[in-house]
Amino acid sequence: MTTTQSFNLLQPYKIAEETFVIPWALEAPPVGHFHMNSMVIRGAEPVLVDTGAPAVRAQWLEAAWSVVDPLDVRWIFLTHDDRDHAGNLLAALAACPNATLLTTWFSIGRMAEEWEVPINRCRFMTDGDTIDAGDRTLVAKRPPLYDNPTTRALFDSKTDVLWSVDTFATNVPTPMPETADLSPEDFRDGQLFGGRLVAPWAALLDAAKFEAVVADFQHLNAEVIAGCHCPVLRAPQIPEAYDLLRRLPEVPPWTEFTQADLDQWMALAESSVPPEQPRPSGT
Ligand SMILES: [Fe+2]
Ligand SMILES: [Fe+2]
């Protein structure tokens, strides 16, 4: 476990009392990197919030157990069944025999194509449902933007930490602990880019109806916002992020990269590979 002074991927860092982000990130050329974070709440009844990506399963499990003993984990809150969130779910369930899985009917069904989730260990959390985790009440909330219909964010009313899932996703030039480390331009551009990537349907939204949804989410009054695909947000980035979110219905859709872009990247990659050296004789 580390502080923000020594930020490294897959080394949990504290973002609020008893609350830790497990940071990970993927390179996303040519736009930088995208975080693939998850979170752990180490309260009276510890909670895993999402379960990381399968590509780094062993390291993710090691990181999680550096924060909390798996036998102490009481809840696994699965925001939705996308692989970047549910990637290590079965491994986490196996390691945490005392944990109840907080999820939705539809998530379980969507995972059934590949995974049989033990239904007797599940508890459904629909929009607005709360869970008493001993020393805190956790609220499940559908976030304004999502790329999977089952998505639920999680708000901890004790620390005022909000796990926003895929809302507030942003590309970053390099992985970092806090959005305060981004330039104002990168912060603005990243919010508008990430929002349109996650939810290209934002361009179809009725701005007034969307405003009501954003306002409802903002009224949680989160002091700290962590998400899978963003560094941690605090004031003054939080109100700025909400303002940018409100603009999305009016922003022209992002133009996807095309085959011409891919051809150009491949040509560039090939031209930068040194020519094959002749093999030494006798090999
Ligand atoms: Fe997702
Ligand atoms: Fe995601």
Question: How would you characterize the overall build of this protein?
Answer:
By secondary structure, this protein is α+β, with helices and mostly antiparallel strands. It has a single domain (4-268), classed as Metallo-beta-lactamase, Chain A, CATH 3.60.15.10. It has 8 helices and 16 strands. The protein has helices at 57-67, 83-86, 89-95, 105-111, 184-198, 207-218, 237-247, 259-272, and strands at 13-16, 19-22, 25-27, 33-35, 38-41, 47-49, 75-77, 100-103, 122-124, 130-132, 137-141, 153-156, 161-163, 171-172, 224-227, 230-233. The strands form 3 sheets. A 7-stranded mixed beta sheet has the order 1-2-5-6-7-8-9. It has a 6-stranded mixed beta sheet with strand order 10-11-12-13-15-16, with no helix packed on it. Strands 3-4-14 form a 3-stranded antiparallel beta sheet. A hairpin with a 5-residue loop joins strand 3 and strand 4. The radius of gyration is 20 Å and the shape is globular. The protein starts with 12 loop residues before the first strand and ends in an 11-residue tail after the last helix. The model has no long low-confidence stretch (mean pLDDT 95). The protein binds fe (ii) ion (2 copies). One fe (ii) ion binds next to loops.
What is the SS-derived class?
alpha+beta
* CATH topology assignment: Metallo-beta-lactamase, Chain A
- Major beta sheet, strand line-up: 1-2-5-6-7-8-9
Give me the CATH architecture, please: 4-Layer Sandwich
> What is Rg?
20 Å
Along the chain, the helix and strand elements come as EEEEEEHEHHEHEEEEEEHHEEHH
Strand percentage, roughly?
A: 15-25%
- For this structure, what is the CATH class? Alpha Beta
Provide mean pLDDT, rounded.
95
